[in-house]
Amino acid sequence: SFNGILMGKPLIKEEHQCVCEGSSCVTGRRCMGHQCFSSLTVSGSSQVYQKGCFKVYEQSTLTCKTPPSREQIVECCHGHLCNMNSTVQLPVKGTSRLPRMHLKHSLRCGCISCVKEFLLRIHTNQMERLTSRDAEYGTIDGLIASNVGESTLADLLDHSCTSGSGSGLPFLVQRTVARQITLNECVGKGRYGEVWRGQWQGESVAVKIFSSRDEKSWFRETEIYNSVLLRHENILGFIASDMTSRNSSTQLWLITHFHEMGSLYDYLQLSTLDASGCLRMALSIASGVAHLHVEIFGTQGKPAIAHRDLKSKNILVKKNGQCCIADLGLAVMHFQDTNELDVGNNPKVGTKRYMAPEVLDDSIQMDCFESFKRVDIWALGLVLWEIARRTVSNGIVEDYKPPFHDVVPTDPSFEDMKKVVCVDQQRPNIPNRWFSDPTLTSMAKLMKECWYQNPSARLTALRIKKTLTKIDNSLDKIKTDI
Questions:
Q1: Which residues participate in ATP binding (predicted)?
Q2: Is 208 known to sit in a ligand binding site?
């Protein structure tokens, strides 16, 4: 049960065969999953029936907990082919119970392929949809609920955040979660739009509402989160994406886990760290980047992904002192088997302050995926520098400052950054006090190896992760010896 999960009882691990019926059940009329479902959705004047399975148990928890509406009902069951004879019908006006009837219409539909089909429609029609003034809420196929990541939603997934696991939800929860979210308070504003703390069934969620000028970032994040099996404790957990018209204006929502500590940028303004806290943060960020960068093969796999806008404002701090990486609006994907590089359709570039030399002087090889990974490593080195400055050693700590604060203006231009980084080849200053602390000395060496002018000389994310783990282990040994 849902309550059982919240109280730490184990998830049901065994899989069962389910009936799969819908527009694109690519694996035939059967699928394997933790739970089976039957659903009915009203789309315009037609009724769409579907059957299928939930690959990841916690996804069924989110879906099955969502009560039926006049437009949609999802019924779940657990057991071998338990949805074979199940029947669903939308509530009749004035009744609270759900009468049943046999499904006379069925369309075959598979989880991931249906989502891809949906996304293809979005990309084909996005400009028409965004300019359509008479689109009403519900006429846009708005919600895809997908990977529910590691925490929030009452710590649902604390015990299931293993690297590389996860699966997109079937295309059947459209709009329901988004409709039930109450926006409580705005917790952030920027060029991208706004971030709100919302509530869904008593649990906090974050709702990023994109500005119309940043619609391509919304499309890209929606696409990646729904077509990639991306779930990791150091990647922001995705819940749903919603595109709808409200009061004659289109709103683009990205619904994710809520982390009350806010961004790393905000956190470092007010808080200092000890060596242990510094390493916990640094290692968690490196782990998140390493997970993005690696391609995992197999049914629970993922393509390699480069972030392209890594910075302290795009990293969130969790209650346990670790961090998770957010904002995949500029990400690129690479598929090794076909050597396909998917750069998306977003003309935006990264944040100038964090740009690597090869981006600033336009020498980057845009057709080579390794180039994008090396750009992430440059930025990761700058983030490590920001964290290290706020780490206390011998009672001393620096005020928070962004990278290159002492050599460029508050809002530096492309040319400002190019002169400092490419022409003068300057790097952030390493304070002398760091060299009397073994942790900060090791961190300084590490970040310098992220900042080589030659991109191919920089460390990989996996090497950074392994090095930080060694530093962490040596710190533990010092503590034990004391």
A1: 208
A2: yes
CATH of the domain at 168: 3.30.200.20
Mention every residue, 6+ apart, whose C-beta is less than 8 A from residue 176: 66, 69, 72, 143, 145
Of 242, 257, 272, which marks where a domain is finished? 257
Q: Which residues belong to the active site? A: 309
pTM of the model: 0.73
Reply yes or no on whether the pLDDT at 193 is more than 50: yes
Give me the CATH number covering residue 351: 1.10.510.10
Let me know whether 201 and 350 are in one domain: no
- At a CB cut-off of 8 Å and minimum separation 6, what does 320 contact? none
Residue 286: Cβ within 10 Å count: 27
For residues 356-373, average pLDDT: 96
Look-up: residue for tokens 């080579």?
A: 368
Q: What tens digit of pLDDT does each residue of 130-161 get?
A: 333 333 333 333 444 444 333 334 333 333 33
Beta strands in 366-453, from DSSP E residues, in sequence order: none
Domain residues for 64? Answer: 12-93+103-257
Please say which residue of 206, 229, 257 terminates a domain.
257
Residue the block writes with tokens 């002169």: 419
Question: Average of pLDDT values for 224-243?
Answer: 84
Question: Scanning the structure block, which residue is given the tokens 């057709």?
Answer: 367
Instruction: Read off the tokens for 1.
Output: 């049960």
235 and 276 in a single domain? The answer is no
Name the phi and psi angles at 466, rounded to 5.
-65, -40
Strands (E), 201-303: 203-210, 238-246, 249-257
Q: How many domains does the chain have?
A: 2
In a domain, 420, yes or no: yes
In terms of Cα–Cα distance, which of 163, 403, 457 is closest to 293? 163
**Lowest-confidence segment of 22-36, 264-278, 313-327 by average pLDDT:** 22-36
Q: Do 461 and 408 sit in the same domain of this protein?
A: yes
Instruction: Report yes or no: 64 and 76 within 8 Å, Cβ to Cβ.
Output: yes
Quick one: CA torsion of 351, 356, 359, 360, rounded to 10 degrees? 80
Q: Residue 397: what pLDDT?
A: 98
